[in-house]
Every structure is written in C-alpha cells, then in structure tokens.
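Section 5.1 Outputs to date
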Amino acid sequence: MHTSILYKKHCFTILLVFSGLIAHAGTNLDSLRAVWNDESQDDLERIGAMRKLAWEGYLYTQPDSAFYYAGLEYEFAKSKGLKKHMAAALNTQGVSFAIRGDYANAIHYYMRSLKLKEEVGDKRSIANAFNNIALVYMEQGNHESAITYYKKGLVLYDEIDHKSGKSAALNNLGNAYVNMGNEASALECYLQSLALAETLEDTRGIAMASNNVGHIYKSKGDSATTAGNTKWATTQYHLANQFYANSLAISEETNDLHSISIAVIAIGNMHKTRGDSAQKAGNTALFRKHYNKAINQYSRALTIAQEISIVNEIRDAAKGLYSVQKALGNDVKALEMYELYIATKDSILSDENQQEVIRHKFQYEYDKQHLADSLAYAQQQELDHIEHQAELEQEAQQRYVLYGGIGVLLLLGGMIFIGYQRKRKDNEIIGAQKREVELQKELVEEKNNEILDSITYAKRIQEAILPPTRLVKAWLPNSFILYKPKDIVAGDFYWMEQVDDTTIFAAADCTGHGVPGAMVSVVCHNAMNRAVREFGLRDPGSILDKTRTLVVEQFEKSDEQVSDGMDIALCTLKGHTLQYAGAYNPLWLARAQGSAPQELIEIKADKQPIGKVEAPQPFTTHTIELQEGDTIYIFSDGYVDQFGGEKGKKFKIAALRNLLLSIQEKELMIQRTIIDQTFENWRGDLEQVDDVCIIGVKV
C-alpha cells in the first residue's frame, strides 16, 4: 500500500525541479506582456517574459492558456533560430498536458523538446527531459519505460558531474522500482540518493531519501533501523546508535541475516563518520595550538576507531595524540602513543609485505613459464633452420630454369615500358582535362552559391510581406496557419488586414512555386494591398475583382504574353458574420448538428483565377452567420496533391475532409500539429511537390 503513496508524494515536485522554473507569487502579468509586445526589447528578454507569463501566470490555474503562450514563445524562438528556447517552450507545453492528465500529448511534446535539446547538445537539459518523460510514464503505470529513461538521465548526470540532478533522479528511480515490487533495487537507489544529498548538504533531499528508506525498512518490519537512519540524518548519533543496536539485537534473535547486515553496516558507517569528523577536528585544533581540544578530539577518534577496528584510523589518531603530547612535553604519554602508532603502522606494513610475498610468488611462476616457453622457442628455431637449408638446395636446382626465363621477362619488360610511356602521356592529357573540369565545377559551384544567396535574401523579403505572428494572434486569437514552402521561396502566401472592427484574411496559391511563384506572389500581394488600402474595398468579391484588374494591368505592361495569376480564398470576419469569395479555392465550415456528429459544409469558389481570362465574371460574395464553436478552413491545393503513402498516390481532398472531421475536438494548435505530422508521414521520403498553406479559425 505504501508504494503508491511514496510515489505520489514526490513525483510532481521533482518534475518542477527538472523544468528549472519555479513559480513566484505576485508576478506582474501586465509588465510581462508589455516586455513581450515591445519589439525594441532584446529577443531573449522577450522570450524570458513570455516563458514567465506561461509558467507563473497560467500553468497551474489555466494550463490550456499556458500551452497557448508557450506556443507563441516557440514560434518566436523558431523565427530567430533559437533551438534551445524552442525546446524550453515545447517542454512547457508538455508540462501543461501533464498537469491536465493528458499523458499522450505530454509525451509527444516532451519528445519534440528532447529532439531539439539533443541537436543543441545540452546534456543537462537532455537529462532533465529524460526525467520528465520518465515521470509521465510513471503516471501511466509504464514503469519499465520510466526506469529506462531514468537510467538514461543518470548516465548524463554522471558525465557532467551534476550531483543534485543525479540525487533526484536516483530517488525517482527508486520510486519506479518500488512500484514494480523490486524493493532491493529501490533501496540501493534511495541509499545512493541519500549519500549524494548528504555530500551536497541538501536537507530536503536528505529528508526525502531518508523517508523513502524508512518506507522500505518499514515494509520489512525493521522499524528500529529506520529510526536509526532518521536520528543519524539529524546528527543525533547517541540515539541513532541505540536504535541501530536494538535493530541488531532483534535481527540476531530472529536470525534475519539481511537485517543483521544492514544494521552492522549502518553502525560501522555512523562510527566511521563520527571518527572522521573527530580526526579532522583534532587536526584543526593541533594546527591552531589548541592542545586540550586536540587531545579530546584525537582521543574520541581513537576510541571510535578501536571500537570498529579500523587500523588506518587508529594509526592516524595515535600519531595525532603523539604530536600533541610531545608539544606539551608529556614524554611518557607521547612515548605510549608513538608505540601504538608504530605498532599499527607495522601491522599495516605486515599486510603489505604479505601481499608483496604473493606478488613475488606469481612473478616466480611467470618467470618459470617464460623460461619453458623460451626453450620451446629455441627448438622451433632449430627446426626452422633445417627446413630453410632444404629450401635453399631446392632453389639452387630451380635457379637454372629461372635464368632461362629472365631473357623472356626482359623482352616483355621492354614492351611493357613502351606501353607505360604511352599510358603516361594519355594520363597527362586526361589529368589536364580533369583539372579543366574541376575548374569549371568550381565556377559552377560559385555561381550556384551566388544564386542561392540571392534566393535566400529573396526569402527574407518574402517573409517581410507576410503578417507577423503577433498580428495574426492579435487579430485572430483562436487560429492557426500551416505554411510549408516547397523551396526556399514560395508561390503560396497568406495575407491579412485589419480595418476598423473587420479582419480580412486569405490563403493564396500563385502560379508555380520557387522563384517564379514567389515573383508572381509579390505582384498579387501588392494588388490585394492596393484594393483594400488605396481603393477602400471591403466586400470580398469586389476585392478579388479589383485585384484581378490590377494583376492583369501589371502583366500587360510586358512585351511577352504572361498568363500567370493565382487561386485564392478570401474572407472578412466582423463579429459572427463571415463573408467569403474564392477563385477556385473553396471554404470549409465545420459545424456540429445538434446531437449528430460534426460535418464539413463546403462553400464553393468561382471557377476562374485571378489573372487574364476570356469573358471574366464578377466574383461571388457569400455571407454566413457563424455559430459558437464553428471552425472555418481555407487552403491551397498543395496538401491534397502531395504524393505518398504505401502506393505513392495523391493524398486527395476526401482524405483531408476525413482528417479535419476526426480532430474537431482538439485545440487548434494541436490540430495544426496533427495536420503537419500527417502530411510528413504521408510524404515519407518523397519530395514535396508543391507549397502548402492552410488557415484554420474557430469562433
């Protein structure tokens, strides 16, 4: 019964230790938000403010809100390439799920955090992640997996010599062994944890480990030893000695060999600790010439050492007393201690001499065997010499035959030499050609690098025209955007504007991808900005009509025939009123039908692009009154056109519908993660065929 209580008592406390963050009461959340929203602040200051906001403001009261703020921290750190802080944000999200009891998602985010920490190479953070994962497995009852991850963490704590982390991990590992019924292994872990905590003078760690040791002993009926451990941990040595003595007496009466050994070891360790302490105190007093105090401490150390027969400690205590008495001029007492010192020293030397005799014996046996091996070697050498002489005689008989062949070999050698000279000239020609090819290759690589640098810079320009995450979350708080360019730059883009109390947003797919698609996207993006900002249009159909006019006018300025354009889904949201217009790209509305399961309602787009077409028609504006809990999705065709799966086929529109219906109960950020992972799992090792852009908004 005590095992489950033992684990529950310490599990979550240790989880907070490993996260490295401790909540403080009275945190000023408004000041933290001010730091986060101030773009002039240092990036790390902003990240730190967001992390404190998640942990200290919401984690224990509103863990779902903590998940959201940690998501903002992750996206910002990702945009800055700060993997360490991305990992910390994922860890916060994992903790938020662990608090809510959603262990599957907790493991998912911990694993993502662990992967980033391994890329950074921060061993301490990796070890902490192992422990967090193990704690969740403990909560799930998967003790074998928990033990595996605790041991991984212990290996890293040893490598970086992080004693406090190792002590906590050992204590947790002991809990896992207890829950599996392996009390022997649990006791070993608790005792190691206790020893480390004592070394660090960690009173809390000492209390936790001592308490767990006590539970083990109590389960075995050894309450006296448990009490002794408690008194020893609080330096009440006299009482501890009484408890240990009682435990030893009881164990001897019942002939319990295991408990006898535990009590004896405990008594020995206690006495040795006290003796070491007295010896050190004596040395300090002697150095300061506090002779009376030195005599008291050395005498105490000598008594303890003689009680448990530790010869080295007897020798050191006797030597200390000899030095004090000599300094005081007490020659008789000094001589007595000197004789004791010499006697114990000779005893130690006697043991060492015995070991030396054994060593000489082994050396003698080795030398004898070596001599035997040498004789055998000499005999083998003689046999080899005889065989060699026979071989020489046989070679003499064959020599005449070989002389005849030499002439033939010389003739062949001349022919080979002529061929070699010809081959060398050919190689020189080939070498020159190879050097020319390598030179051309270097030139091509240099040009490629220049082109790549230009495209990378173009990516920065394209990213600059996309709405930043802070504006997306401010204008559409409950939303997600999944944006996955196929190449460095993309033809897909997402667009957003806020006019008074109306939010306008779109998912666009321009002709092509890569550099050509990106160039078209810049033209189309500029046209949409003009339609809204310059011409003041708010109706989605009218915005698309004007955007088409501006794009066609721009392309008609060229002497070449340009038929490029874009497909798009454009929405305006004011309160619960949604207006939509689309060029090829539809809008999906997920709505619950009473007690019936949710369904996806499709609002169809006009079958015409934003570009030059014959007989263009005005775009249709659809108006929809949204209900509480409705979720809308707009997207490009890159997701459904992706090849993959076992047969290498397209994902298709029906599969995307089924996927979205299956995750309606999930939070939007979790939906985004599932949609992204499904895409990557489907794609596998195949190349991404097109840009991907999906926007989800929930009322």
